[in-house]
Design brief:
Layout lengths: L1 E4 L9 H9 L5 E7 L11 H7 L6 E7 L7 H7 L3 E5 L6 H10 L3 E6 L17 E5 L15 H14 L4 E5 L4 H10 L3 E4 L1 H4 L4 H19 L2
Parallel strand pairs: 1-8, 2-3, 3-4, 4-5, 5-6, 6-7, 7-8
Helix pairs in contact: 2-3, 6-8
The protein binds D-xylitol-5-phosphate and zinc ion (ZN).
Zinc ion binds next to strand 2.
Length: 224
């Protein structure tokens, strides 16, 4: 089980310090939300911020591009030090070439799907990804409520992965707290992005540990 604290819920004026806080937890992942003000109605940061952070940490940079034109950002983020780059299946015709481009930059390949989008859309790409991200809120802002209707999508993707003999990670993102993380783990998720539920706690380290424990317990009792 991997917990990926989302820096979106941290203090952007203390980016480096927030990364250090994540480093002191049991996880080695951090989730970086890149928003372009077009694909989603919010703006965050670009590759320069990631490049500046890279020399200061060995954390795995799980980079989620919520952008209409990710093709212009893949190389900059790869050079900046992203470890995994996720693009959205809603970009339709471009998806194939985007996934290929990420792979050719020697980065792990992620594909995300929004709540209103049919899960069948991701099926043709499953053999090409290292991570499938099932959004459990409409992307753009932290602190929204988990959309329960997304749970069957996790189960569907888990079943496809088993049938096809693949081993990509199944990640969930949005409204993930201890309760909803357990539900997602029960459905087959093994990677959990959480912002406000973790950064909102006094001890980030304790919150990450607890989420790791809860999700691991669920999967030990159910998935194996
Ligand atoms: C939502 C982002 C998420 C966000 C989750 O658009 O993709 O990664 O940080 O935040 P919480 O956990 O607060 O819902
Ligand atoms: Zn995200």
């Amino acid at each position: 089980m991997v917990i990926a604290p989302s820096i979106l819920a941290g203090d952007f004026s203390k980016f480096g310090r927030e990364l250090k806080r994540v480093e002191k937890t049991v996880t080695n992942w951090v989730h970086l939300d890149v928003m372009d003000g077009h694909f989603v109605p919010n703006l965050t940061f670009g590759p320069q911020v990631v490049a500046n952070a890279r020399p200061h940490t060995d954390l795995f940079f799980d980079t989620h591009l919520m952008c209409s034109k990710p093709e212009i950002l893949l190389e900059p983020f790869a050079n900046a030090g992203s470890d995994l780059i996720t693009v959205h299946v809603e970009l339709e015709d471009q998806v194939s070439s985007l996934l290929w481009k990420i792979k050719s930059l020697n980065k792990q390949v992620g594909l995300a799907v929004n709540p209103p989008t049919a899960i069948d859309k991701v099926k043709p790409f499953l053999e090409k990804v290292d991570l499938l991200l099932i959004m459990t809120v409409n992307p753009g802002f932290g602190g929204q409520s988990f959309i329960e209707e997304c749970i069957p999508k996790i189960q569907q993707v888990y079943n496809w992965r088993e049938e096809m003999g693949l081993d990509f990670r199944i990640e969930v993102d949005g409204g993930v707290n201890l309760k909803t993380a357990a539900e997602c783990a029960r459905a087959g998720a093994n990677t959990f992005v959480a912002g406000s539920a973790l950064f909102g706690q006094r001890s980030l380290a304790r919150a990450v540990k607890k989420m790791h424990k809860v999700t691991t317990q669920v999967s030990d009792g159910y998935l194996k």
